[in-house]
Amino acid sequence: MASRRSAPILRRLSKQTALVTGGTQGIGLAIARALLAEGCEVVITGRTQEKLDRAAKELANKRAVPMICDIRDLRSVRALFAGLKQRFDRLDILINNAGIGQVSKNIAELPLDSWSEVIETNLTGTFLVTQAALPLMRSGSAIVNNLSIAAKEVFPGSAAYCASKHGALGFTNTLREELRPKKIRVIALLPGATDTAIWKAVWPDAPRKKMMPPEAVATAVVNALAIPESATIEELVIRPSIGVL
Q1: Which end of the chain is more exposed for a tag (fewer CB within 10 A), N or C?
Q2: Active site residues
Q3: End-to-end Cα, the chain, rounded Å
């Protein structure tokens, strides 16, 4: 009688070092909390000390390390990684989560400064953080880029946001191929409508009760990171069970 192969054992994330940009609220905060529950050391970033202090208090975990960073600013990114290097000798998990939405405006009415702010945050910021992180990452490390389902779909009135996310998906796919020989996994996270504060600016009357909680996305991310190193998830699409958009 042929023997059955046992199911693959999930990797342990305990004692790994993780960086979650935009970790003060929403999906970023939920992922940080989930990684802490796995036993990771977790650095969270935010642009203001007030938000960082509030998030650190909410996490209430000595392994949560809050650090200021504006991912659009190269000097700020360099300062973040200088501080990270002083505390840790490596980075096992990078979660590029920091991002902003766009006030709904058609292309004909979209101001250049609004366009630039979204592109600089969602696309250039992801590039700057990733480039700074790579020297600290080794074989077996993982990068998760939170892109949103807008990386593959388009929504009228959201040209800057969709362009930034489509561009970030191209960046992510290129990064994956470049890092494949180094055995650093790259995952494109594509969540659908999630109940976070971003909707206050994008769609104030959005039916947020029908959306996924950030914790659902965080659980999926941790599960994707925990699969054996012999396999990888390249795209992680998560949608609400009830149609929202």
Answers
A1: N
A2: 161
A3: 51
Q: Does residue 4 lie within any of the structural domains?
A: no
On whether residue 2 sits in a domain, the answer given is no
Structural domain of 185: 17-238
* CATH number for 123: 3.40.50.720
Nearest to 142 by CA among 221, 36, 25, 46: 221
Q: Please state the domain count of the chain.
A: 1
Residue 213: which residues within 8 A CB-CB, separation 6 or more? 30, 194, 195
Give per-residue pLDDT as tens, 31-74.
Answer: 999 999 999 999 999 999 999 999 999 998 999 999 999 999 99
Q: What is the pLDDT of residues 97-130, one digit of tens each?
A: 999 988 889 999 999 999 999 999 999 999 999 9
Residue 2, SS3 per DSSP: coil
Q: CA angle, corner 208, sides to 203 and 213, nearest 5?
A: 125
pLDDT at 2: 45
